Amino acid sequence: MEDPVNRYRRTAALGLIVVVGTAGLAACGANSADDSGDGGKTIALLLPETKTTRYEAFDKPLFEAKVKELCDDCTVNYLNADQDASKQQQQAQSAITDGASVLVLDPVDGKAATGIVTSAQSSDVPVIAYDRFIENADYYISFNNERVGEMQGEALVEATGDSGDILMLNGAPTDPNAGQFKKGAHNVLDDSGLNILAEYDNPDWSPDNAQQFTSSQLNNIDPAQLAGVYAANDGQAGGVFAALKAAGVTEFPPITGQDAELAAIQRIISDQQYMTVYKPIKTEAERAAELAVDLINGDDPSDTTDFEGVPSYILEPISVTKDNVKDTVVADGFYSVDDICTTEYADACTAVGLQ
């Protein structure tokens, strides 16, 4: 597979910033960092886990590449918490102690991360809440997460004909985005004709947990009578698919997802998953990098909107089914046709017009 950074440099991703209002910026002048101190121009990038493939495969390299492009003498200190909030707090404190100029923080636990924000700001280090909201952060960059859940719910209603029994698998309760996805989905599903047989909040977004939950539910119901499955992301969708396959299912009910993982795109074109939500990570990662470099250089942006009192950039997600794979993730260079259309998926690719 072509390196994601090179692929993104070759082809720009789509992503529209939704400006939902105009907000005055918090006074950040005191937080603007310079190149003094032991850390020099250091940006700490703190990501939450590795089970979701996007972080290592896309967010990290894209962010690092953009920083390198914008700032020759900037260094990115990358830290991954492996879904451990205590570990992330220790990593953040070490980064501050080592002289980081800016923290770009995707929190394991949004509430616990407020302590990181307080500690950083007391050291005049601004915090950019990346992808997941943190109260009182200096800036926030993410997608319209409630809309993500609504898209998933709408797709499931359409695919099922708005009737039948479904399972619902949400994200980690400690992830602030998961609550927004869940709310958006319930906005649609609760007013639909679908019946939620069982609902599960996955404590760490684990595909293995999703598979185990689904398998346990299939012990009580006939898999053939399952109308569909709401899975909050593609990792969980993969776990659901594995459980259904192990139960002998060959014609799969509609399964939702999120993140446009390669395996999910391949399942979608093969009628093994109905849809995913594509969030142009290039736009998000590069805007975060630009903002971090601006703050290091003492420049405050003026094009933000307000989200719960924090100056923010809110980006639009995109629903992807087999009918628009070519016009979305392929057109944007997120994946090439060769990435998707391996030997196993050659026939499916031909059927949807990718070959």
From TrEMBL:
Cellular component per GO, a single term: outer membrane-bounded periplasmic space
Domain of life, per lineage: Bacteria
Record keywords: Signal
Keyword Signal: yes
A molecular function GO annotation: carbohydrate binding
SUPFAM superfamilies in UniProt: Periplasmic binding protein-like I (SSF53822)
Principal location: other
Name listed for the protein in its UniProt record: Sugar ABC transporter substrate-binding protein
